[in-house]
Amino acid sequence: MTTPRVFIIRHGETEWSLNGRHTGTTELPLTANGEKRIRATGQALVGDDRLIVPSQLAHIYVSPRKRAQRTLELLNLGCTDSFPWQEEQQDNSLNTRTNAQAQVDEDIREWDYGDYEGLTSATIREQRDKNGDGSWDIWRDGCPGGEYVE
Fold first, then answer.
1. What tens digit of pLDDT does each residue of 12-55 get?
2. Can you tell me the distance from the alpha carbon of 134 to that of 144, in angstroms, rounded to the nearest whole number?
């Protein structure tokens, strides 16, 4: 029996991740380069002789964000079933490599940056300094209008 493993894969590049803007709830597509890099990552990491062996996958969880779902599609895991967000049933019979089903899970969605959505850390620190709020650490201070660590 093989040792269970967990793979956590971050979504591909978006315009905001490219320039350091915090992205939580805003739906942004992957850049062309982001799609290209995820395809290359899939080719490098996914296969019977690679780190991620599709036939050994038991569960696939994905964020409800479209950028995460597109990243999963581009990895080319060869899922038997269509992904839950695909409106039309896909015929995956020629590319089936795993029986694991993808499940959209709100619990692994990106952080809600609230008022800081779309801002860089430098801009947030400048705003806080101007307002007399002091330094900013997301884990200590959270995000007004968004999430805080509990």
1. 999 999 999 999 999 999 999 999 999 999 999 999 999 999 99
2. 14
Q: Which residues are catalytic?
A: 11, 110
Region 74-89 average pLDDT: 88
Helix (H, G, I), strand (E, B) or coil at 28: coil
62: enclosing H helix or E strand:
strand 60-62
Per DSSP, the three-state class of 5 is coil
Which residues face 120 on adjacent strands? Answer: 21
Which residues lie below 8 Å from residue 98, measured CB to CB, with a gap of 6+? 54, 55, 57, 77, 78, 79, 80
Residue (of 21, 3, 9) closest to 121 by Cα position = 21
CA distance 29 to 32: 9
Do 83 and 73 contact (CB within 8 A), yes or no? yes
* Sign of the alpha-carbon torsion through 101, 22, 13, 149: negative
